[in-house]
Amino acid sequence: MMTRIAQWLVVVALVGATAVSPSWAKKPKDGVFGSINGKKFKATNVEGVNDHCVSGIWDQATGVIVFSAIECKPHRRRQGAQRKNYKILVIGCNINYLMPGPTTLPLVAPSMLACPSSGYTETKTGRFHIAKSMETWSSDFQLLPDFSTTSHLMMRLDSFDGSVASGALLGSFDIPQPPATGSAAINGEIDFRFPFRVE
Cis omega before residue 179 (within 30°)? Predict the structure, then answer.
């Protein structure tokens, strides 16, 4: 009798284990995540293409992909929008920057895009999360011998299904705007995944 009970408990445990999804099988969270200038960056997209904290546009006519990401609180309607001492990323990349001519190419993954039209801001806030001070860095713009342009800030596009784009930002923001100094380097890479508006 005890043997049968033990066997039954083993079967129940196995069934329960297979019914629970493993952590690696969970859907990845939409947003922008990583570390920059030695500080953690976390901006989530919870409202799709109309999210006011993380949103992006792919302009097919110009070959430009842009997005902005602001660190917002998880419960935005109840607690407000920005986090305390929030950070902002504004990214502008063009698939044509690495070419000597203006020929527009389709946005096909995987690919690397230069992002010279980009910025990163660290904000210190006071009462009610009102900004007291800001430090901003911009990405650089380099002209190559073949008259194409590039930057120390790059986007690696890993996938794009016509709506959701995912990939990573690599490199650094090398042009400080006073009172900022030095460069703001990405530590490893900044990962992103969320729906983009296609125009």
Answer: yes
- The three-state secondary structure class of 71 is coil
The H or E element containing residue 3 is: helix 2-19
Give me the helices (H) in 22-117, please.
76-79
Q: How confident is the model at residue 2 (pLDDT cuts 50, 70, 90)?
A: very low
CB 43, CB 53: distance < 8 Å: yes
Show me where the domains of the chain are located.
34-198
Instruction: Provide the pLDDT for residue 71.
Output: 93
Dig out the tokens for 72 from the structure.
Answer: 């917002």
CA distance 143 to 180: 25
Residues 74-125 have pLDDT tens digits of: 666 654 577 788 999 999 998 877 766 656 667 778 888 999 989 999 998 8
DSSP 62: T
Peptide linkage before 110 cis (omega within 30 of 0): yes
Q: Any idea which residue has 């342009």 for tokens?
A: 149
The C-alpha atoms of residue 93 and residue 153 are separated, in whole angstroms, by: 9
Distance in angstroms (rounded) separating the CA atoms of residues 112 and 51: 25
Nearest to 148 by CA among 69, 95, 112: 95
- Count CB neighbours of 159 within 10 A: 11
Query: What is the structure's pLDDT at 150?
Result: 86
